[in-house]
Amino acid sequence: MLFISACSSGDGNSDTKLGQMNTMSDSLWSKHKAVTSKFRFKLDVIKDRQNYMKWFLKNLKFEDGSRLTDEEKSDAIRYEAVFRVYREISEGYTHTVLSAEELFYEIKGLEKQLKNGVYGDGEDVKKLNIFKKEYASLEKKLLDDAVNAAFIDKQLTGVEPGFQTLQPKMEVIAERLKFTPDTSAEGQQEKGERD
């Protein structure tokens, strides 16, 4: 009996309030990992693809339709549908990725405060309630990010085969029709704003 009671008094034991708080902190890491596992597409790749599609479709809009075959017209319509998905999810994807990065540091901060005894050993009700509020706040943010990440992942995964099939065809059309990089007033204005 003495051995069992001695083993159950450690901080990592989930039978103590401190042990339960540590377990709750660990569960946040598991939930965070589940969110970030949905980020199979790199943010800069998404932006680059979106910019290329926008540029291509803008140029194609001013071309004479008779210069395209029926198959190319059909492919261009499908390509525009892929672009609409990218355009609609781009901002949400950026927000979700940045939110997950911010949550990483918030969870790390909570974990550090827990290890440094800021929340005590779980016996002080006031400190325990503060910990529970922090935990609940982080858990809600993770849940929101999980929903957003799953939606975005589903959208991107759904259009990825179409993108992979259509992108080389659109590049051939762009080369054949001699599309040039954007030097319009809008493009120059954007460049001026960055400088």
List the topology elements.
Blueprint: H1 2-7, H2 17-36, H3 43-61, H4 70-115, H5 125-176, H6 185-194
Helix pairs in contact: 2-4, 2-5, 3-4, 4-5
Structure description:
The protein has helices at 2-7, 17-36, 43-61, 70-115, 125-176, 185-194. With 195 residues, it is mainly alpha-helical. The chain has one domain (31-181). The longest helix has 52 residues, at 125-176.
Summarize this structure as a short list of keywords or feature phrases.
195 residues, disordered N terminus, rod-shaped, 78% helix, single chain, 6 helices, disordered C terminus, mainly alpha
Short description:
The chain is mostly helical and 195 residues long. It is built from six helices and no strands.
- Low-pLDDT runs: 1-12, 185-195
Rg from Cα: 26 Å
Shape: rod-shaped
Overall average pLDDT: 86
Number of strands: 0
Q: Helix coverage percent of residues? A: over 70%
Determine the N-to-C terminus distance: 73 Å
Number of domain modules: 1
